[in-house]
Structures
1.
Amino acid sequence: VDFYIEILPKEAEPQERPVRISRNGVHTLVELEPDLISGITLGNLLGVVQAALWLPDYGCFLLHCAYVLHEGKALLLCAPSGTGKSTHTHLWLKYLKGARIVNDDKPAIRLIDDKFYACGTPFSGTSPLNENVCVPLKAICFIEQGPENKIERINDTSTIVFKILSQTLRR
């Protein structure tokens, strides 16, 4: 068996309800908080888990962000849930002529010939917004709430990697 997922019964104590994943003989234990997966269908959950396991084989990973397509390039808005991605996305649609949402939750980022691309996936959270579109990545904006509006370029590679990982590997 290439891929095996075991989800323990709902009746089990919360600490006994992990998801065990096995791929090519390597076993991984993924502990899921019940609140994190409430409202998610089993099919969507399994699809995301399977994609997360296989995408790295293709130079790809899922990123928790909104993906806006504008002038043939991908603009990504990354932030923890509840920060304001949807609000910002709709402002971009309002002020960037011709912009459209390709994915509202988990597009794939792929490295092709030393260039990063954003690719639509069927994993769009509670929104039905998703398209099968793969275009060059122009920018990733990391959104944070604060007392004032400001924008600044991040030049430190380790900070960029940390911010991307924080929206890839969920706690």
2.
Amino acid sequence: FELCTPRTPLTKPWVDNLRNILARSDVNFVITSEGIDVSYADEGKNVVIVSKLFGKEFEFYRCDARISAGVEVRQLYKIVKTVQANEVLSMRIQHDKPTTLIITTFNGPTGCRTTYTYELIEEVPDEEVKIPDFAFPRSMTIPSGIFQKKIHDMDAYGVELAGRPDPLDLS
């Protein structure tokens, strides 16, 4: 598996949102030829989060075989938050080291290259989250930056997200 993108300002908020939204920090990243999937459901299956990064949206993306990688999101965030907006970010898992995620940043103007090795955790025991087809009577679209700010604000004040009696689709 390998990906590369100079659009780090789009990648960092994804990891940050996962860090802020997930009740537990360890999840499985399922990496396929189509992209990276993260799914999470709380114990009561009241909160379901499904997120996908499409491989075709990266400047370079390759995955030869399906990988289920256990990731401790808060630890991954500590690495990803150091990436600057003008740096190229690459991530890879080598065939000979399937438990290690190698993260490299490259700053073109300075020529500085930094490599981090992140040891993946064991695959998190979790049943696959299947979401049935359904429709909501209302839909609301908000920019991800605003959604991220609201999550940060609620986290700072100790507010818990709870379901509403009338379903709301946050697209």
3.
Amino acid sequence: SPIATHICATYNNEFNYERFKARSLSILKKAEDKFGWMYETLCNGKKVNVNYYIWSETFICPSCGEKINLWKESVENNGNKINPDFYCPNCDKLCSKDKLSKNYHPIFDKILNDSILQSKFEPVVVNYKNDKIRGEREVERYDLELLNYAKIHKNLVTSRCFLTIKNTFSY
């Protein structure tokens, strides 16, 4: 049977761990060299690695029609408490999430080949690692510019990434 042949081949073929490890590290190094800039931020003027961003959904205030960033207005105590009611930063009216309108923007979906509406999100917090110390801070101008640059060039970055992976594994 094909599965028995596969199992037998797997058990009997030699596996060169050192060669596999060297090749894997080489691929990771190439990826880091080409795309590592997308996962960096500044901490006290020094570039550090980004672990993740916290993104917040944005809504529209029913009173004034202005954008509200849900995280900035309703989250307290470093993300440990979410207030069900909060004040709009623009008109100072009391709001609750269930009474807000979603903030949609149109995007073109290549799979559907049509425009769709998607909720708008904004980065609000960056979690980073500086040597052995992890930290969090609010997103700064540098982070926003970097994310915007990556978004603008996503097709270029994506196509380069796939070409790199394809060329790496071609024999």
